[in-house]
Amino acid sequence: MVSTTDYIVAIELGSSKITGIAGRKNSDGSIQVLAWIKEDSSSFIRKGVIFKLNKTVQSLTSIINKLESSLGSPIGKVYVGISGQSLHTVKHTVARDLKSETIISQELIDTICDENLSMATKGMDILDVAPQEYKVGNTLQAEPVGIPANHIEGRFMNIVARTALRKNLERCFSLAKIEIADIFPSPLVTAKAVLTENEMRTGCALVDLGADTTTVSVYKNNILRFLSVIPLGGNNITRDITSLHMEEREAEQLKLTYGNAIFDHEAGTGGPETVQSEDSQTVVELHVLNDVIEARAEEIAANVSNQIDLSDYADKLLSGIIITGGGSNLKNMDELIRRKSKTEKIRVANAPHYSVEAPQQYTGLKDGTQNTLLGLLASGTESCRLSKAEEPNEVPKGLFDNDEELRRQEETAREEKKKRAEEEKRKKEEDRKRRQEEKKSPGKWIKSAIDKLSNEIFSDEDLK
């Protein structure tokens, strides 16, 4: 058991596992992991979408209880990632023709940003907005205020998802009585964890090969230019292997042990001709196993290449493609994506670019499957430990048993305290929603753009 005063807690709801983590951010940028818990979610989350709320609530409650036991202190709130098949980006431009040459004001920029947020998205929610640029005349500006112009365009990249995705997520945490500190789109925190500043600036595609989905994110000039989720992942390969007459558990083990995305039949003659799982009598020829794996792996790689082409940035990615997630551990998967995309530069990111200090038993944190979780932890800004003022004061059992009046007083006090706690929770929820709105506020967007772009002026070529 580790006892600590301040820590950050994050939870990721994946298609194969729900994972919870608690840790600290050190002054040098490294992460110190204090506790890490995971539970199987394959029976109630598919392709990032919750379809059994009761099972999800039970799992969340279990994870929080186990984290609190490891930490030796109560958890007050958590940071959460949101993902899913419906997650994608939508370009949106808001234009203003000015009657005469006018100096652009902050009020005008605020109006343009507000109009973007009111963009019609039937059945969809805008989860976040990537830092935007403004076209003033023939140039692109991060900060257009004070520039004289006859015309201005605000160019936005909205990250959207089906309304039910966020609604079900929030409902599960509410039923589990777990306060959400903030919700982050998972692809953004994954990129923050594994991509370097140089890669995001010069241009790269981040491919997160998950269990049920594969996410493709394209960056250029430190700005997210494209995001798409492919409904294919490592589980599809595993299920294909079960067609060779074996259980899914056996198929997963064979994939991890003997799988190869590019199997060389001639070179393979020097190795074993047949393989079997550790606890099964099922025997399968190695080349047959890998023919099945390669067929599905090629489909995933082809879809990745197609999405990069759709981004219109395939020829502008000087830093190439970075792959992460559990699927990146499949032998030769990086080489297969290289061939399909015709991209020379490929990097496998099994861990974040910053240092992660963790107890020895947490070896699974560095296999590429937990980069999103570590990114959520790094994105947290507030302590998630329940403060002393919020902790319930436990009364020793039997203290009021012999005095009816004192017992009634104690019960009344407990009810009053419960009401105060509920009121405080309501206020915190309002504050959380206000903070989320502030995150979308034009002033903060502009400040973020200024910090990242330093008033760089881009050509129209950068936006193709």
In DSSP terms (H or I, runs of 4 or more residues), the helix count works out at 12
| Strand line-up in the sheet with most strands | 11-6-1-2-3-19
**Portion in strands:** 25-35%
The major sheet is characterized as: 6 strands, mixed
Helix content: 25-40%
> For the residues shown, what is the average pLDDT?
86
Name the CATH class of the largest domain.
Answer: Alpha Beta
Number of domains: 3
Annotation, overall tally of beta strands? 19
The CATH topology of the largest domain: Nucleotidyltransferase, domain 5
Question: Which CATH architecture of the largest domain?
Answer: 2-Layer Sandwich
Question: Roughly how many Å apart are the termini?
Answer: 53 Å
Tell me, what's the shape? globular
Radius of gyration: 25 Å
Question: Helices and strands in order, then pairings?
Answer:
Layout: E1 8-13, E2 17-25, E3 31-40, E4 45-46, E5 49-50, H1 53-71, E6 78-82, E7 88-103, H2 106-117, E8 124-136, E9 139-141, E10 148-162, H3 163-175, E11 180-185, H4 186-194, H5 197-202, E12 204-209, E13 214-220, E14 223-230, H6 234-241, H7 248-258, E15 274-276, E16 283-285, H8 286-310, E17 321-324, H9 333-341, E18 346-348, E19 356-357, H10 371-379, H11 404-439, H12 442-453
Parallel strand pairs: 1-6, 3-19, 6-11, 12-17, 17-18
Antiparallel strand pairs: 1-2, 2-3, 4-5, 7-10, 8-9, 8-10, 12-13, 13-14, 15-16
Helix pairs in contact: 1-3, 4-10, 6-7, 6-8, 8-9
